[in-house]
C-alpha cells in the first residue's frame, strides 16, 4: 500500500493494480446516547472516557470510496447529499479535489440503503453518475431502495448484489448483516476491507467492539458481524476502511488490551 496523495477531503492510495480514493461527504455529530451497551441501554457516562465528542455529541464523519481497477471505476456509497444534515453532501467537492469526474464512475455499489449512503446517487439533474450502468444493492434491500422516491431516475440501473459477487476486477462483496438486513462489505485486492457501517464511533467501538449503535437494526447480529470481521481483518492483516471512521477513513486494526485500536494510514503505523 502506497499513499499517492492526500487533500483536505480526500486521500488516494495504491494497492497493486488498484487505486482507492477515500472521499469525505462532510462531518456531523450524533447524540452520545446512540452508543449502546450489551443490555441495549445507552452507555453510562463512565464508559465514554475515550469518546470523540464535539459540542457534547459524538463526531460522525461520512465517507465514500472510489475504487479504480483494471476494468472499471466503482463508487462505494454516495453520501447524504441534501437529504440529511445540511453540513453533509460534500462528495462532489471531494471529487473535484481528488480529480475524479462523475462520468468516470462505471458502477455504483451501496453498503446499505440508509439515507447517508444512497442519497448522493441522485442530484438536481437526475443520476449523479450518468455513465454508471449498474447500481448494485443487496437483494435484501431492493424493496427499501425502490421505496425511496428520490431513487426513481436510477431504478432502471438497479442490479441485485449477493455475497461473493465480483463488482469490478479485484473487488468482492461480503455479507455483513446487522446494521441493516443486507449490509455489505467489500474486499479489495484481498487486503482492504471497505466495511460500511460496521463501526460508527471508532474511539469507543475499536476498544469495545461489543458496543452497538442505536441505528443497528438487529443489535445482536450487528455485534456478531463486527466481532467476526474485526477478528478476521486483524488476523489477516487487512487494511480497513469505513463510512464513519475517523481521518483519513482508512487504516489498520491492531490488537489492544481486550479489544482493538485503529491505526490510521499516514500515522506512521
Ligand atoms: Zn451510515
Taking Cα atoms only, what radius of gyration do you get, to the nearest Å? 17 Å
Give the count of helical stretches: 5
CATH homology-level superfamily = Ribonuclease Z/Hydroxyacylglutathione hydrolase-like
Provide the structure class.
alpha+beta
Which CATH architecture?
Answer: 4-Layer Sandwich
- For this structure, the CATH topology is Metallo-beta-lactamase, Chain A
How many beta-strand segments?
A: 19
Low-confidence stretches: none
Describe this entry's structure for a reader:
The protein has helices spanning 91-98, 115-118, 142-146, 202-205, 219-236, and strands at residues 2-6, 10-15, 18-31, 35-36, 53-54, 57-68, 73-76, 107-109, 122-123, 126-127, 134-138, 158-161, 171-175, 184-188, 192-194, 212-213, 239-241, 250-256, 259-264. With 269 residues, it is of the alpha+beta class. It has one domain: Ribonuclease Z/Hydroxyacylglutathione hydrolase-like (Metallo-beta-lactamase, Chain A, 4-Layer Sandwich). Strands 1, 2, 3, 5, 6, 7, 8, 11 and 12 form a 9-stranded mixed sheet that branches. Strands 13-14-15-17-18-19 form a 6-stranded mixed sheet. The protein has a two-stranded antiparallel ribbon with strand order 4-16. The model has no long low-confidence stretch (mean pLDDT 96). The protein binds zinc ion. The site of zinc ion has 6 residues, from helix 2.
